[in-house]
Amino acid sequence: MDSADLAALQAARDWRRAGHGVRLYTVVETWGSAPRPPGAMLALRDDGALAGSVSGGCVEDDLVWRQRREPPTALPELLVYGVSRDEAARFGLPCGGTLRLLGESLATADWLDELLARCRAHERVMRCLDVGSGAVDLRPAPRDAVLRWDGQTLCSVHGPRWRLLLIGAGQLSQCVATIAALLDFELLVCDPREEYGQEWSAPAVQRVPGMPDDAVLAIEADEHTAIVALTHDPKLDDMALLSALQSAAFYVGALGSRASTHARRERLALFELTPAEIARLHGPVGLPIGSRTPAEIAVSVMAEIVAERSALVRGGARTAGCVASA
């Protein structure tokens, strides 16, 4: 779940609590090119305030205009944009794209409280909306769950933001954090060394106290978590990897040359790790783009993490342990 959709739900909950009328829009289908994917959300307050996004801006403007022109319906309604090429151009939909939105008026914020609390607990939740009654049902979402829309029921999948735990708070970690923030990752860092306890110039991160292995356990690394060891200190990096490789984290990587990575794999084999768990390690970390500087290495690291994330979202998998010239 990206931060724009999370912001839409949080705003809708807060506005409804404050007594405002709120309408929630969800992208249910797209054809051709579309600015936002199915599942993207927008909250529209009764005075025209917006949170979230369903397009590049023109559709949002039209939704505000519609609301000011006539009161929205109490029950959910379907809106279609970009049926013709002229309309697609008018609403900023590229390549003749078509966008279908389902709009619903929020009578209560109760289900929003529960949904947001479960997302904060790193749960995956399926929200099913009955178009005929406007009733909402929340249920656990299996790993392979995707948005479903049959014209009568909308089942959308909600879950935690993708997050990245960095082991080490040096210059390279700050470069990685800067790029990861732009890619909408929640950022965490662990570094027990006193000399790395200073404030970052990079985007704000949550400091996880303790030793690296304890940090991995403390955050309860799940399938929305990536972990990268960047201290260049085998004692610290290996501590994190021992816990990370046994966790559900979708990506585990460690900085180092081919020789040091080979030695690390041999050390890890001395502990209670299976060959399959050791094979999950991405090392040398990052895609092979000829990177040398900290910024270039950060690009290669985040490119590989995004590739793994995309494969996971599609239901596939890439091969771990890609070689990079970091």
From TrEMBL:
Domain called XdhC Rossmann: residue spans: 164-305
Chain coiled-coil ranges: none
Listed Pfam families: XdhC_C, XdhC_CoxI
Domain XdhC- CoxI: 15-64
Name of this chain's protein: Xanthine dehydrogenase accessory factor
